[in-house]
Structures are given as structure tokens and as C-alpha cells.
Amino acid sequence: MKTPARIHKGTPGNLRRLAQVLRRGGLVAVPTETVYGLAANALDAKACRRIFRAKRRPANDPLIVHVADLRMLAMIAETNEAVPRLARAFWPGPLTLVLNRRAVIPDVVTAGLPSVAVRMPAHPLLRRLLRLCGLPLAAPSANPFGYISPTTARHVQDGLGSSIAHILDGGPCRHGLESTIVDVRDPQRPVLLRPGVIHAAEIGRVLGVPVRALSRRRTAGALILAPGLIDRHYSPQRPLRTHRRISAAMVARSGSDEAWICFRRPEWAGRANNVFWLSARGGTHEAGRRLFALLRRLDHGPWIRLHAELAPPDGPGMAINDRLLRAATRRG
Ligand code: TXA
Ligand code: MG
Questions:
Q1: What pLDDT digit, counting tens, does each position of 131-182 carry?
Q2: What angle is formed at CA 175 by the lines to CA 273 and CA 281, rounded to 5 degrees?
């Protein structure tokens, strides 16, 4: 058996050593403000193939490339007038832009697409690591393909501990939901590929044009456009059902082996041990931060089925509901 992954604190010495690992073509799981990512040098095809192997990710699902600054972005992608405007408004932060790629980016990163997805992350440890290696880092979420994204170093160790060697611990992720992805190759016709904490409407306001969303009906056809949109993503092992509202009566009618995730703490929760909530005060930011960790915890519990209440649409609410609806899609 291989030695299980080590969790490293973000000391200056550790960051220098991990930057060295990345420069030599190795993998490091890294904290971001959204979820933990599994990083490799984005310019090194062999290193990036290791990401696919460790995650058991299909080769047709492209990676997001993380950059330290706009100079690094210009090295790997063609910029246009949308880039500086969105960068000023949202970067560093949880927004990913799909742009035309440059030839330095190997095919394995983009799954052969003519475009590349790029973002400038906000987590201070990842920013330091990016500057220390001086390289763009390709990093998908650091989970086995199809499972719930990790929001702590421990989650990464639980899922990938036997297939990678290094995890940089940056604490629990601030947002807990993957970045918003928007295709801005044509700045006049931006397309939302994945909802996140930053709303399509906010992006539209900055660009001065509305952002179209790919409808769920078109999702299957969009497989090539945004493979991360395939249903059955972010899935717990237990079947999950979503509900507009969860009431005391619904819980009372169910078996005690079914777990209920309310959006906020219901006043009727009492001492029921199968009732959980995403947010004590009913805030969507807190709920988003806790969603994946709670799904994981319940997925390892004694429950035969999970139920979750949809969030109100403010703040990260729509992204929460997007992840819940995908997690609830029945496995084929
Ligand atoms: O917040 C995040 O975005 C996290 C952290 C680690 O940065 N990353 C993340 O990566 O969620 P991942 O691999 O789980 O999702 C990346 C998704 C792909 O599944 C695909 O949908 C989309 O990004 N993507 C990547 N390159 C693309 C491209 N060229 N065109 C369209 N979509 C692309
Ligand atoms: Mg992912």
C-alpha cells in the first residue's frame, strides 16, 4: 500500500516544498475559497494526466486553470474586452471564464476543446503557492469523479488519500460551492455554464449585456460545451430527494431511517435525531458553506434516504439548489 496523503500546514517552508513538487510534475491538493482542488502544472501534459488518473475522471471533462494574475492568463488564453472588466469586479474570486485557448495549454487540460476555463482564486495560501511556482495550475475539485466536492483537507484525505501524496491545509472553504462558470468568448453573448456564488445578473451588469443560461433541457446536448454539467454530479451514495418545503408532518410520516435536511432550523425540530439544517439563522451564505460537509456526513450515517429542502434564491441559493437537484438525479 502507498503511504497515505500528508496534510501540510501552510508554513513558508511547506509552501516552498509544495511549489517544488508542482514544478517537478507532481500533484498537490490545494485550498481555494470555493472547494479544494487537485493541482498540477497546467503546462505539463504528463502532470495533468495524473490528475485524471487520481480522480478517475473521464478524459472528456476539461480542467479549470488557476492563475496568479492577468499576465499569466494572457499566456494561456486570448483575452478580450470582457476579461479586464470581470477581473476588476470579481477577481480574485469564485468566477471562472471560458476563453479561447493558446497553444501552450496541452489538449489533456481542455479535453481537446478550442477553449480553456480560467480563474484567479482568492485563497491566500493558493495565491502564495501560485506565485512561488510561477506556473498556471490546472485543478479540478479534489474528489473522486462524481462524488461530493471537498471543503476541508480531511475530506480530500478521505476521498483521495491513497492516490495522492500532498494536501495543503487552508481550513474550511469560505464559500463551499464551486465557482460560477461563464463562457465569454463572445463578450456580447456571455453564457452561464455553471451557477455559483456570483450571479449571472451581476456578471451581466458588469458586461452591460444579459447572460444567457443553458437550460437544463439542453444539458445533455451541452456535454461537449460544459461537461461538468452532466447530471449525476456531486452525488452522495444515498438516494436524495429534494422538496420545496419540509414540514413536521412529512418527517412524522417518514421512517426514522430517513434523514431530513431543512434549510433553516425548524421550530418543530425538537430533539428529533433525523432532522438537520444548513443554516441556524437562515442565511444562504452559511448554508452554501455547510452543504457539502453535511451531505458527506449524512452519506456516512445510518440513513437509507436523504431529503433536502431547496434554498431561497438570494445569494448562493440558486447554486445550492443546482447542486441539490444534480445530487438528487437518480443514478442510471
Ligand atoms: O470552484 C471551482 O471552480 C473549483 C476550484 C478547485 O477552483 N474547481 C472545479 O473544477 O469545480 P471541476 O473540475 O470540478 O469543474 C470544472 C468544470 C468542468 O467539469 C467543466 O464543466 C468546466 O469546468 N470546464 C472546464 N473547461 C471548460 C471549457 N473549456 N469549456 C467549458 N467548460 C469547461
Ligand atoms: Mg468537480
A1: 999 999 999 999 999 899 999 999 999 999 999 999 999 999 999 999 999 9
A2: 45
Nearest to 246 by CA among 227, 265, 220: 265
In the three-class reduction of DSSP (H, G, I as helix; E, B as strand; rest coil), residue 132 is classed as helix
Instruction: State mean pLDDT over 231-240.
Output: 76
Asked if the peptide bond before residue 92 counts as cis, ω within 30 degrees of 0, the response is yes
User: How crowded is the C-beta side of 21, counted as CA atoms within 13 Å?
Assistant: 21
Please, where in the chain does CATH 3.90.870.10 lie? 6-178
Total number of residues shown for the chain: 332
In the numeric block, which cell numbers belong to residue 188? 456580447
What is the Cα–Cα distance from 31 to 174, expressed in whole angstroms? Answer: 10
Please give the class, per CATH, of domain 240-328.
Answer: alpha beta
> How far, in Å, is the centroid of ligand 1 from the Cα of 247?
36
Distance 271 CA to ligand 2 centre (A): 35
Ligand nearest to the CA of 185: 1
CA 141–ligand 2 middle distance (angstroms): 4
Q: Closest Cα to residue 99, out of 121, 76, 122? A: 76
Q: Map grid coordinates 414540514 to a residue.
A: 247
Please tell me whether the overall predicted TM-score, pTM, comes out greater than 0.85 for this model: yes
Pick from 28, 96, 116 the residue to mutate for probing ligand 1's pocket: most ligand atoms within 8 Å of its CB.
96
Q: Give the span between the Cα atoms of 44 and 41, in whole angstroms.
A: 6
Q: Where along the chain do the CATH 3.40.50.11030 domains lie? A: 240-328
Q: For ligand 1, what atom is nearest to the CA of residue 179?
A: 1
Phi then psi dihedrals of residue 255, to 5 deg:
-80, 160
Percent of the chain with pLDDT over 70: 92
CATH architecture under which domain 6-178 falls? Alpha-Beta Complex (3.90)
